[in-house]
Design goal:
The chain contains 2 helices and 5 strands, in the order E-E-E-E-H-E-H. By secondary structure, it is α+β, with helices and mostly antiparallel strands. It has one domain: Gcn5-related N-acetyltransferase (GNAT) (Aminopeptidase).
């Protein structure tokens, strides 16, 4: 199960479906717009894996992160160790 970064999307291939995180970049900021994990794959840490990939991408590209979707907002509330990345 590998995480891949495409144009404006971080995805995990799940065989017949995929989990994904959609984002856009504007003025030095990475906006996390939406996340989706198929119901049968929820609770397995896929959202966390995609958020970690987003954080890595932001660091590599010197971007601040703006969580927009509820999942990403909640993730950063639960992980204050990443607060320096928020913009």
């Amino acid at each position: 199960m590998s995480v891949r970064i495409e144009d404006k999307k971080i995805a995990i291939d799940l065989g017949e479906s995929e989990a994904f995180l959609k984002f856009h970049v504007s003025k030095g900021k990475m906006y996390i717009d939406s996340t989706f994990t198929p119901e049968e794959h929820r609770g397995k840490g896929l959202g966390r894996k995609m958020m970690e990939a987003a954080i890595k991408y932001a660091k590599e590209n010197k971007l601040k992160i703006v969580p927009v979707c509820p999942f990403s907002v909640d993730f950063f509330k639960k992980h204050p160790e990443y607060k320096e990345l928020l913009g």
